[in-house]
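Minutes, methods subgroup
Present: GH (chair), OT, SY

1. OT presented the first of two proteins processed in the latest run. Sequence and structure tokens recorded below as shown on screen.
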Amino acid sequence: MKSHWTYSDIFDLEYFFHSDQDVNDSILHQRDRSIYLDIQKQEIGNLTSRQSLLLSWLKINRKLRAAETDVSLPGPLVGEALRLMLLMFPVLGVIAGVLSGLAFFSYSGTTPVNVFHFLFLFIFTQLLLLLFLVLRSFLKRFGLVKQSFPLTFRLYTILTARLVSRLQHRLRSAVPGSSRTAYQQVLGLAKIVHYKYGMLLYWPLFSISQRTLVGFNAGLLGATLFRVTTSDLAFGWQSTIQFSSEALYQGVKILALPWSWLFPEDIAYPSLTAIEGSRIILKDGIYHLATQDLVSWWPFLLLCLLVYGLVFRILLTILSHYYQRHCLRNISLHSNDALSVMRRMYSPVVSTQAASIDDSGSKVIDHSSYTRVQ
């Protein structure tokens, strides 16, 4: 049977490791050896693969725990929480994107929308994050980065720690006793899993953040389209820094490289004439500007948002899903607890029993003792 670990499995595995700390080693030895013989008999796992064997051990242990007690394991709770976040956070992202778009394009009709504001708020910030990810991967490949975890992982850790702290505070009063214990177990195990497995928890957090940004960009794109089609929007540019229209034109052409081969110039990006005609000079106002120049920016802005915002985030979501599966397939199970379980499963249980003597003083069996090996 091929091993397919999940995050629920990881939390349940650490839960069993933690529960076994107060149990006598001989009892654990008999239990784990019995599980191993059961696995061997049913041929439900690869006996030479640590991942497969521990996963089979975990599944049987779950059945034994379910038969002995009604206490819920933390794994299903973790799986449910991840599924809920994967559904809820993108929806929140869509709502945030729609509200951001509607607020940004609240146009009174007297001042055009400054395209620099749109580009810096919604495009350049995302490009900087993408550049950071690419640059760090490049430096890590050549051994120039020494820190164990990326900056984004530490950011996710800080945010998660604060969330855990708030949850623990609320659990004391808002959640019933039995459910509160289960939640607290999960929160405690999260720290252990983070310490033992490190980057394994980075990818689901990264995936959730990218899905949220996919929702945000989709909502922002929808709000922008809505404003463009239902309002008389005008776009222009102005800056305290004095640079020429030609410089801006070259920069716009560079940004449009991913789609400039697909669309004509007037749609892919504004022409030099349109850029010159949409420049806003404060003392002159906008009444001398031509309408065709003021509306020439919106296809370019939509395409920027579509490519650099939505498409790139979808690609990163797919990439994070791949690395999640890769990390789970190649999970490192070299902790002392895992090695102890493997040792107990592989080591036969040896029991020595002396010969019994009846009331008359005679031995029930002929030999003095015997040894039984399992």
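2. SY then presented the second protein from the same run.
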Amino acid sequence: LQANIYGTFLGSDFDFWHTQAGLDFYDEFHEDPDIVSDYMHLGFLVGVGAAYGQSDEIPYTERTFFGGQQVRGVDVRGIGPNEHGFPIGGPAYLYGTLEYRRPLVKNIQPGSYREIESIQAGVFLDFGLLDPQEFSLDFNELRVSTGFLFGISFPVPLTFSFGFPLREGDGDNKQVFEFEIGF
């Protein structure tokens, strides 16, 4: 849970607030902590923001955008709503992901009997919804994508995702390939 307030009384150029709540659930299918096993990730995020006082809208740089690592298969900031061909983001949003990952190559950690994952593969289903109206979620604007991924853990953690939109909207920018570097 996160809540932020920005105001001219705090030195900001705009008056607006933003709050969001998220949930991430991970579950390994093997209970032994020394064994690397398949796992599932379920994640949700919902949020809303609104202008108040002297401001009429949330500044463009503070709006929420989806695409890239959120809703894979769509370019960064690639999901509408759009205005004159450009994404405008939304003050109200809903995002979710369901992933299943399987280790393909495992090694024994040096100096122990503990397994570590070297290479993994998985599948995912992502969805995202941005609404330009505060306190509104129009499910006709829901975007859904699915795909598969490959990851390596050593020497630098890299994940390569290949996403394909199942439900897209006008003006969305597709992007099949996405990669993430994580430490």
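Chair's summary of item 2: The two ends are 24 Å apart (CA to CA).
Next meeting: continue with the remaining queue.
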